[in-house]
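Tip: read the tokens left to right.
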């Protein structure tokens, strides 16, 4: 199929605003009106790959997501499921970060239509519902702790069975094996921060011997007064999980050594 015919099929099947621009031998930039929420246009290239035509983003889409989300977070938990499901649904392959859709039976228009749907679907990763975001933060927290602390030295969702048999004052992860166990709290918002402040006060009232660590999803979103009350009694804090994974890891290894 000649290029003008491909362009016309793209316009008929997807959008009249699509156009092709040659960028060398067997390579064309596909300009579309579709953008991510921040205004950046989707990157789409029509090119020959192993003697067959395909559509490629040349790694742009996943790189664009890392502007807002840590790259490692895209490879696990809820975010990974969103990405994997979208690619599978629209028959798009992930080749080391490059998203590819093969042109089958010269069906250029329908393949482009599905391909654009897949790229737009991936942007859902940055617009997860509030509950899904909380779930992802929790998953990321558990994955980080589990990757550093041996199973016999950690317990998630711990509570003191002697003073609190009904589990009203929970610790997201209790790390043992030291003179003073480390109570680690995963804080996703004001409510959880308030609850943690109350829990730490209770632990002190019960004369428990412990160290405390607070890891925030995003400390900037916490009410200043709520944060101030926690800061008065919490031993160590990290302002966000995604931006501080290396520092959190180093701190935990030092504490448990």
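Filled-in amino acids:
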């Amino acid at each position: 199929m000649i290029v003008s015919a491909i362009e016309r099929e793209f316009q008929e099947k997807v959008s009249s605003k699509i156009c092709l621009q040659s960028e060398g031998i067997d390579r064309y930039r596909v300009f579309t009106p579709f953008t991510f929420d921040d205004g950046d246009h989707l990157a789409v290239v029509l090119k020959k790959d192993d003697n067959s035509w395909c559509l490629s983003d040349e790694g742009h889409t996943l790189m664009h997501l890392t502007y807002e989300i840590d790259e490692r977070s895209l490879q696990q938990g809820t975010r990974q499921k969103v990405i994997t499901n979208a690619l599978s649904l629209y028959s798009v392959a992930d080749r080391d970060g490059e998203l590819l859709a093969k042109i089958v039976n010269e069906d250029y228009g329908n393949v482009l239509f599905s391909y654009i749907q897949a790229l737009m679907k991936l942007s859902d990763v940055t617009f997860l519902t509030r509950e899904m975001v909380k779930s992802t933060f929790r998953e990321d927290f558990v994955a980080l702790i589990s990757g550093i602390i041996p199973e016999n030295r950690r317990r998630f969702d711990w509570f003191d069975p002697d003073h609190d048999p009904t589990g009203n004052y929970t610790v997201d992860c209790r790390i043992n094996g030291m003179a003073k166990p480390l109570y680690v709290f995963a804080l996703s918002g004001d409510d959880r921060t308030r609850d943690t402040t109350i829990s730490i006060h209770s632990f002190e009232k019960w004369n428990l011997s412990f160290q405390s660590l607070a890891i925030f999803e995003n400390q900037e979103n916490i009410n200043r007064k709520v944060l101030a009350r926690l800061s008065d009694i919490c031993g160590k804090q990290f302002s966000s999980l995604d931006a501080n994974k290396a520092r959190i890891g180093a701190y935990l290894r030092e504490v448990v050594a």
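The radius of gyration is 25 Å. The first helix runs from residue 3 to 13.
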